[in-house]
Amino acid sequence: MHLPQKSVVAEGKIRIGPLIAIPQLLREQGIDPEGVISEAGLELLLFDDPENVVSFASAGRLLKVCAERSRCPYFGLLAGQRTGLSSLGLVGLLARHSPTVGAALRSLVLYLHVHERGAVPALTVEHGLAVISYSIYQQGVEGITQIQDMAMAVTFNILQGLCGPAWRPTELLFSHHLPDRLGPYRQFFKVPLRFDMEQTAVVFPAHWLERPVVGADPWVRRIIEQHIVELEKLSPHDLASQIRRVLRVLLLTHSSSARQVAALFSLHPRTLNRRLQVQGTTLQTLIDEGRYAIARHLLENTRMSMGQISAVLDYSDASAFTRAFRRWAGVAPMTWRSERS
Q1: For the segment 274-309, what is each residue's pLDDT rounded down to a tens digit?
Q2: CATH number for the segment(s) 13-210
């Protein structure tokens, strides 16, 4: 069995597979893909091999430039509609051969970092509903709205492929403004859509997690998972980077205490902090960085109130959040938001 991926991508990188449909999509809109891709700082040849790797920031910039040049503000949505498990390389193949839909999604959550290190997926189940979310943690990324729209279309396709045509989500959540043109979103998803949310996610009945994946081969799954584990052994382990990645989810789910974070890495909180101090940081510093990043995102990309944002970030009230933000940014959050509106 040929397994093409030979290493785990570095921090801030992404395997180009999920973006592979972009050149053809541009051509269909009468646009020369080489010029647009070059403007984003990439080469068209990169799209010849889905295993090629680019920076996550470059991927976001590419989607942003594509949306601008095509005058299609929902370009990311269109690109995502052409993408599914088959574009996700080893991790997609692992999910495809998982015994159940829940096992497939947990495989994506556990191993997506093997070929994408700029965003993190998460799966939670509560009150009979499953929520599969996608959160960007890489700093300084352009085209965040485009990335989110693409991720939701890809996730929708993945779930429909795993569950079958009868699957329908309860709703989709977007952590960005209501788009000017809602029609393309409604036409593709055909379910309730909510914007200006704290996270970008697909919500669906949890009973679908128990559904068997048709055609899954346990032998193939074992081979792929063994290969991924071997790849991880060969990759450097940067504890601070790993914590930054998971904190994006933990902060949004109010699970970011020292004990909770340390437990994820099977460490005592004091041991965790000692190891972080060797890297020149502390858990509290990383938590503050994560809160600041989430705050900036929600201020710039949503219309959430100060009270709502403070609740998302676990502050007692809006004034406590304002004091913290002023300490980070040097200005009040409302001032920061107005400067970018």
Answers
A1: 999 999 999 999 999 999 999 999 999 999 999 999
A2: 3.90.1520
Question: Span 119-135, mean pLDDT?
Answer: 96
Residue 203 backbone phi and psi in degrees, to 5: -110, 130
C-alpha to C-alpha distance for 25 and 197, rounded to whole angstroms? 29
All residues at 6 or more sequence positions from 303 whose CB lies less than 8 Å from its CB, including other chains: 177, 196
Structure tokens at 49: 């091999």
Fold of 239-339: Arc Repressor Mutant, subunit A (1.10.10)
What is the pLDDT, as a whole number, of residue 224?
Answer: 94
- Average pLDDT in the chain: 94
- Residue 71: both structure tokens together: 């005058």
Domain boundaries, the chain: 13-210, 239-339
DSSP H/E element including 120: strand 119-126
pLDDT tier for residue 71 given thresholds of 50, 70 and 90: very high
Closest by CA to 267, choosing from 243, 249, 244, is: 243
pTM over 0.85: yes
Question: Do the domains at 13-210 and 239-339 have one common CATH topology?
Answer: no
What is the per-residue pLDDT across 213-227, written as a single tens digit (0 to 9) for each? 999 999 999 999 999
Amino acid at 7: S
